[in-house]
Design a protein that fits this description.
6-stranded antiparallel beta barrel, conserved putative lor/sdh protein from methanococcus maripaludis s2 fold, 320 residues, mainly beta, 4-stranded antiparallel β-sheet, 1 helix
Length: 320
């Protein structure tokens, strides 16, 4: 058997004298502890850290803000008793569709000194009964709640927006309703309340669904809303590349000679996966996103390169 190690071709060849020649191809000769590339150890004999980098580039950047929203009906009517008395009859039940003027319940005054005709309580709007607060025999005072009506076919979404974000909502270029396992819907902004709630510090923003939308939403349902700011060109990097030193954002630059240098930057919007860089970086630079171990400023490292897939190849050849 003859063994040959060729560093240029990165292969090991074994020649059997009689029948077969088997060629095994390896991406690196790690099994033999042979390296034909730059040493992965420093002068002290310690293994250098391997780093994964992200290239700095200018790209279209949009701020994204997520808010919880609640689906509500545009029509929400509360029906109250016009006078004191006892409910003598209930004409409809929860979930029933009614037209404006449809009788809901009848109430009869119980004053023993007089004889009163029953008072008919009617639906003030067309819709469906979603709440019924009485049954036959219930005694009511004037102004007590009888029923609540909504129109499930006329829906809107309300979002409570923090006062600090109101300007961003006003300038939003796109508003998206996120739906799991369904296509997202584009919403339009109807109006924003001009007053901030003193208890919550938020202002109500009302969003409209697209016309003829077939989205199956229910009044009272909680949804997720994404608000996108206007697009603009910006320098962005992977959010994991930001390192804070004494509260100041820095990045680790991968420089010529495979040396890592700590570099201060000024950050803008943080979208989680991407961070806007206002000052300190230019297109084409490389920043360290993660490494196999702690890196000191000025330390020499090894750049991780995505390996190529090399398959073992076996050839059958005539005996020599």
């Amino acid at each position: 058997m003859f063994l040959q190690i060729d560093c240029k071709g990165h292969y090991v060849r074994c020649l059997w004298v009689r029948k077969y020649r088997i060629t095994l191809v390896f991406g690196s000769l790690a099994l033999f502890s042979v390296s034909c590339t730059k040493s992965s150890t420093n002068e002290d004999g310690k293994t250098k850290a391997t780093v994964f980098v992200d290239q700095v580039k200018s790209s279209t950047f949009r701020e994204e803000i997520l808010y919880p929203g609640r689906v509500l009906s545009e029509v929400m009517a509360s029906v109250k008793a016009p006078s004191a008395g006892r409910v003598t009859r209930v004409y409809h039940h929860v979930g029933d569709a009614v037209q404006r003027g449809t009788p809901l319940v009848s109430i009869k005054n119980l004053d023993p000194g007089f004889v009163y005709s029953a008072v008919m309580v009617r639906a003030p709007v067309s819709g469906r009964i979603w709440q019924l607060a009485v049954t036959s025999g219930t005694e009511l005072n004037a102004g007590d709640k009888v029923a609540s009506l909504i129109d499930p076919d006329k829906l809107e979404i309300r979002v409570e927006v923090p006062a600090s974000d109101l300007e961003k909502v006003e300038e939003a270029s796109d508003i998206i309703l996120l739906r799991e396992n369904h296509e997202n819907l584009s919403l339009s902004k109807a109006h924003v309340s001009p007053m901030v709630d003193l208890q919550t510090g938020t202002s109500t923003c009302v969003l409209k669904l697209p016309e003829n939308s077939e989205a199956k939403l229910l009044p009272g349902q909680l949804v997720s809303i994404k608000i996108l700011g206007p697009p603009r060109q910006a320098i962005t990097i992977n959010g994991d590349a930001i390192k804070y030193r004494r509260g100041i954002p820095h990045v680790q630059l991968f420089e010529e000679g495979s040396v890592v240098k700590l570099h201060e930057v000024k950050v803008g919007l943080n979208r989680g996966d991407k961070v806007e860089i206002l000052e300190g970086l230019v297109d084409g630079q490389k920043v360290v996103v993660r490494s196999t171990k702690y890196i000191s400023d000025g330390e020499e490292v090894v750049l991780y390169v995505e390996p190529e897939v090399i398959k073992a190849k076996t050839e059958k050849s005539p005996a020599r």
